[in-house]
Amino acid sequence: MINLTIDGKNVTVEEGTSVLEAARSIGIDIPTLCFLKDINEVGDCRMCIVEIEGRRGFSTSCITKVEEGMVVKTNTKEVNEARRTVLDLILSNHHRDCLTCIRNGNCELQTLAQKFNIQNVEYEGEKIDYPIDDKSPSIVRDSNKCILCRRCVATCKKVQNIGAIETIGRGFTSKISTIEDCSLADSNCTFCGQCIEACPTGALHEKDNTEDVWKAIYDKDKYVVVQTAPAIRVAIGEEFGMPIGTNATGKMVTALKTMGFDKVFDTNTGADLTIMEEANEFIERVTQGGVLPMITSCSPGWIRFCEKNFPDQLSHLSSCKSPHQMFGAVLKSYYAEKFGIDREKIVTVSVMPCIAKKYECSRPEMEVDGVRDVDFVITTRELARMIKQANIDFVELEDGKFDDPMGEASGAGAIFGTTGGVMEAAVRTAVETLEGKSVEQVEYKEVRGEKGIKEANLTVAGKEIKIAVASGLANARKIMEQIEKGESPYHFIEIMACPGGCIMGGGQPIKSSKTRMSVDVAGLRRAAIYSIDEASVIRKSHENPVMKMLYDEYFEKPGSHKAHKYLHTEYSGKPLYE
Fold it and tell me: Quick check: is 573 in a domain?
């Protein structure tokens, strides 16, 4: 343990702790911009400078380690003047259209400008006017708002192991871009959106589809149906000041109905349908000698990653569409026929925690007989903006319920929202099917938690089944390299592109680096997801009566010809760079 003094306060911390962390441990806030704990600790922005007795000049607190007897001052006149100058220089080449910026009110640069009472920028000079890159179906890149903090670069490289973006140019012309300065759409970007979550400003954001959705709602000739992913309900409340991890399902449903959607359904029902098909596909592969290991295909960022980086291994992917795509196909086939609605007039909107879903719904494979499964995808953040546009007081809303007959879902469908959830849900159904009897165990805690790669061994109907769960594309690469070498010991693998799964998707509420350092955001959201499952009367997908209705009335059985037509797809290799 190391003893030091910060602003006259004695503090004892473990050896190896940074001055920044030591200060925050006793409630002393040191401003940061480029810092992202365990991801981007480089001291580039200089906002976190402090004075240390006995040292000349300033020290960057985010990378300076504590020493015995160290005396630190964080709030001197000289330190604050230097920070203010740094901030002034950053703002001098920044497009300051804050009122119309998508990050207005949730921008770390704006927060610091307010904190330091910046009312005029002293160092006004030349500004570079970069074109906006909006070619991607998922991500918009506006270099005019980039502050070169490199948090996005570090996240893409270290967390996701993609390296789609890097610093190019020198000096004043430096900027964050792709190889050959092409669009993200033409790069090896997977559209996971983790760069957006890391960005402190409006330099990166999701492509906005809110106006498309409003237009559909206002069109009296359209029948607009919305479905919400499991991760949305445990995060949407954060956009309205509710505690992280609040389960706001009922308020969310009421808000959607108030906004004017004709029907409000639960993607958890689509998740149950996915399990019916995916568990059946896995059982067929195990019992009939199919390609193993089988890998889940619910994460479109992961699918794009696999298509670009491991095109020769695509036979390992499940042919199942993701839950919201399946549900979209059901709404425009079974549901349309059952209720006599012209499927050409149905507009399906998915509220997703994932910006790669915007890309997914635009893929040519995601349609049946020329009709798109899903028309528009909006993120948690976009839904929050729409609720505010509609002048709805979200916090004061009464709880509503999803519409019938497609509104019932199991707890298994709910846990799709977190890493390990798809695997656990699939195992609940696969085990009972293989055993041929009801099995009391419904929780498989070996595949839960934040660890990047988790594994478990199961004995099912006398067979040894080895399963694995990976979240984050860096971990996905490890799994795939093992398969490529023919060394994989697994039978069934779940892969999610985002670390932590959908609860930490690229479309979820953005948290500042300070919040991410001090609060276990993923843990709180994950706990809320599991509490939904624990409170559910039905906890296995195959016991959901909606599944019985769908198969009895329309799809016959999992894996049938009709099921394959609407609920399955295929993937193909793509060049790493377009």
Answer: no
Tell whether the model's pLDDT for residue 578 goes beyond 80.
no
| 267 and 392 co-located in one domain | yes
Residue of 297, 502, 540, 541 marked catalytic: 502
Element (H, E) at 349: strand 346-352
Helix, strand, or coil (residue 175): strand
Beta bridge partners of 73: 51
The encoded tokens of residue 255 equal 């808000």
Q: Is 281 a catalytic residue?
A: yes
Task: Please report which residue ranges of 485-560 form alpha helices under DSSP H.
Answer: 513-518, 521-535, 545-550
Q: Which of 188, 206, 224 is the last residue of a domain?
A: 206
Q: What is the pLDDT of residues 393-442, one digit of tens each?
A: 999 999 999 998 888 899 999 999 999 999 999 999 999 998 888 888 88
Query: Other C-beta atoms within 10 Å of 470: how many?
Result: 27
Assess whether 125 and 50 both reside in one domain.
Answer: no
Of the candidates 318, 471, 488, 513, the residue annotated as catalytic is: 318
Nearest residue to 405 via CA among 544, 220, 543: 544
In this predicted structure, the answer to whether residue 452 has a pLDDT above a threshold of 80 is yes
- The active-site residue out of 156, 298, 306, 361 is 298
**Same domain, yes or no: 200 and 158:** yes
**Domain count across the chain:** 3
Q: Among residues 67, 166, 365, 435, which one is catalytic?
A: 365
Are the beta carbons of 281 and 563 closer than 8 angstroms?
Answer: no
State whether the Cα torsion 35-472-236-189 is positive or negative.
positive
State the Cα–Cα distance between residues 485 and 495, nearest whole angstrom.
18
